[in-house]
Amino acid sequence: MDIVLLSRWQFAITTIYHFLFVPVTLGLTLFLALLETYYVTTRRAHWKEPCRRLLKFFGAIFLVNFAMGVVTGIVQEFHFGMNWSEYSRFMGDIFGAPLALEALTAFFLESTFIGIWVFGWDKLPEKLHCACIWLVAIGSNLSAFWILVANSFMQHPVGYAIENGRAVMTDFMALITNPYVIGEMSHTIFSGVATAGFVLLIICCWKYAVDDASREVFLQALKAVSIYLIIGIMGAMGTGHVHTQYLAEAQPMKLSSMEALWETEDPAPFAVVADINQEKRQNDTEITIPGMFSFMLYNKPEGAVQGINQLQAAAEQQYGAGNYIPDVTGLFWCFRLMIASGGAIAGLAFLIGGLAWIKQDWLFKYKYLLALTPFLLPLPFVANSAGWFIAEAGRQPWIVVGLQKTADAVSPNLTPGEVFITMSGFTIVYLILAVIAFYVICRIVRRTTIDMANDEGRAL
Length: 460
Hints:
two-stranded antiparallel ribbon, 15 helices, 6 strands
């Protein structure tokens, strides 16, 4: 088998495993910080103890998820030296800086204060203990920022020069203010809020449906979580839309591939479905909405959008002969899968949130349906994985757009057998760890009961 393809598969598998846990961590730390802020500041004495127990309950779930994120993330760093040594040689001066800062300013911050937060209950003043979880939330999202700084350079290189066949940094401020970072970071934060919010929504729905003793507490939690989820999913959709508009300037080939738009059109239609023939560079059949693609990009029903064939010709003229078209079929359907999953999450958030706030008798009447909501748990993870595929596969054949191709970045001394064996090992080990983590979280959810401290709480 092709060594480049195997190495890409290996990195993709480990990254997808890692990215199952990262968005939950980003969103859950913020929710825990907000919840503990309410716990510290609330004057409702009857709600104090249930809120504390909710914090510890959600905190236990967070710790399992955080541990899995760390375990699955460490291996990725070894890929750069073992599988992608030519990339490391070419990009080390630039890529190494944000990775080092991620460890020094973010990982140490969150890991230190997680320990203080876990073991500091009843040992620290309430406000100081609350400050610890806020520092964890800041550290987690700062970690994401530095990783995205490195990734954004690969998508849209800025602040560099080529010296002796290597990319060297010439402007650190340009690196961290890269416009691509803004789009990726904002979308990542809101996606994390939406992912964590949806996980918490599913947990609260299930507890409300099957745990009579905990029903009142989780009804209140459901109200808060639904608002948190709605903010997250609406923010993810909004920032995703704005970033997609930016792609028309920064990565037009990725954008047109997401829509399978082969020829430049003005106005450009939006293809709802399409039978994509990448070999012939055309769609054999398609159902389109006229002018919709232009409207999405320019906020008006007209505006030219460059086609894949024209962009391919321009790339050949700029970089030389070669195929500069990514996996159009994969990008096209992943984009629609991401949108469909996000739409389903938004619909569920508004439905359940509305019932929790307005029609609680209906919520109780149909509680048996809430008990089935865990079957919808994969939705945000499907959306996140599809989004990751779009971001990374959309820049192919480049590993650093315009500077280094993926085929030139792989380690020259690797053999297909070595990569296949390690890829199989990682896949199996990660699968076992993911199953164990899921089992532990389910066990925590099933065995935790949180009732109101007294009858007064029932009037909440």
